[in-house]
Amino acid sequence: MTVTDQSSPQIDSHEAEVKVHLKIKRYNPEVDTRPHWQEYDIMLKPGDRVLDALHAVKWKFDGTLSFRRSCAHGVCGSDALVINGENKLACVNLIRNIGTDLTIEPIRGLPVIKDLIVDMEPFFAQYRSVLPYLIANDDPGYKERLQSQSDREKYDDTTKCILCACCTTSCPVYWANDEYVGPAAIVNAHRFIFDSRDQATTERLDILNQKSGVWRCRTSFNCTEACPRGISVTKAIEEVKRAILYDRV
Amino acid sequence: MVVRPMNDASQGSSSTPRRRSKQNFETWSWFFMRISGLVLFFLALIHFSLTHIFTDVTQTTVAFVAKRWSNPLWRVFDWLLLALGLLHGNNGLRFIMDDYIRTPRRRAFTKAAIYSLSFALFVLGTITIVTYKGTL
User: In the record, which residues are listed under signal peptide (chain B) (predicted)?
Assistant: First the structure.
C-alpha cells in the first residue's frame, strides 16, 4: 500500500516561507516540578497549519515534544489546544490566519499528562454520565424508527460534536468546578433529549437538573466561540434548561 | 444505535406513561434569578434616577426620605429593592462559593458568614423601613 503524506496542504506551492515563532508550554512529569515555556523559531508556509508547526518542532528540533493528533483534518477532535489564548484545533487553523507568533498551551481544566497532552478521562466520564446513546425499549418490529424532517431538525446542530473538549475546557465554571458536567456533555445529552425516537428524555433531564448540571452554566458564551464545528453550544444548554423548567421537550 | 434488550415482558409496551421530570430547588433558583434580575433592573433604575438625577444627590436628605416614605407604596418599593437585591445577590454568591471554594469546611464557613451578614442587613433594613417616623 502506498502511503501519501498529505499532512501539509499547500494552497500555493510557490508561497514563500515565513519565520514562525513558537512558544510552547512544556511539562515532563518525570523531570519538571512545574510547567515551563520553551521557544522555537521555524520556517513555514502561510498555508501550513498550526499542527504542521508542531510537527516541524517534533520532527526537526525536539523529538520529546508530546501532543495528540490523529486524523489531522478536523474530524477526530484529538488536537484541541489553547492557541494564542483561544481553544482551537491545531489541524484546521492556518498560520496565515493565526499569525506568525504562536503561543501554545494544553487545554485548561484537565490534568496535564505531558507537554500538550491532557488526561481526557474526567471529560469522558462526564460525557458518559448523560447517557449519550439512543434508549428505546419498545420493539419497532421489522420497521425502522421513522422520524419527520422537522423532528430531525431539532437536534441537527448537536449531532456535529466531535468531543474535542474545546467547549468544556473554555468554560470558566469548568476551570473552577470539576463537578460541572460541562458544555460538551450537555450538547450530547441535547442530541438525544430532542430526538423523537428516544425514550429516556426524563432520565437525562433529571441528571442535568442537578447542582452539577445545566444550572451551573452562566452563559459566558466561551463554549460557543470555541466550538470548531460551529455548534451553538450556549443555545443548546438554554434549550435543555427550558425543557426542564417547562417540563416539555 | 443501542437498543436495550427486552428481558422483562412488562417493558414491552410503548404506551407506558413517561414519568414526569421534577423541577427542584436548582430549577426554581435559576428561574428566580431571571425574574428577580429583570425586576431589579427597573427597581434600581427608578431608585437611581429619583435619588441622583431628578433630585440632586446633595438634596437627598432625611427630609427627602421622610417625604417619600409618607406614601407607604414607596416603602414597599424600597423594601422590594432591599429584599430582592439581597436574595438575588446571595443566590449569585452561593453559585460563586460552590464553584471557587473547594474545601467543604471553608465553603460552609464562608456561606455561614455571608448568609448571616445578609440576614442582618435584611433585618436592619426592614426595621428601618417599617419603623421610620420621619425624624432622626
Answer: none
Average pLDDT, chain A: 94
Task: Give the tens place of pLDDT for each residue, A216-230.
Answer: 999 999 999 999 999
Question: Does the beta-carbon distance from B26 to A210 stay under 8 Å?
Answer: yes
The answer to whether residue B53 neighbours chain A at the CB level (below 8 Å) is no
- Same domain, yes or no: A105 and A151: no
Q: Give Cα A15 to chain centroid, integer Å.
A: 31
Alpha carbon distance A236, A134 (integer Å): 18
Cβ of A202 and B18 within 8 Å?
yes
Residue B53 has pLDDT above 70, yes or no: yes
Nearest-by-Cβ selection for A244 from B1, B27, B29: B27
Range of the domain at A137: 121-246
What is the C-alpha separation between A187 and A240, in angstroms, rounded? Answer: 9
ipTM: 0.81
Place of cell 421534577: B22
CATH of B25-131, one of 1.20.1300.10, 3.10.20.810, 1.10.1040.10, 1.20.120.80: 1.20.1300.10
Asked if B22 is an interface residue toward chain A (Cβ–Cβ < 8 A), one would say yes
Confidence (pTM): 0.86
Q: Let me know how long chain A is.
A: 249
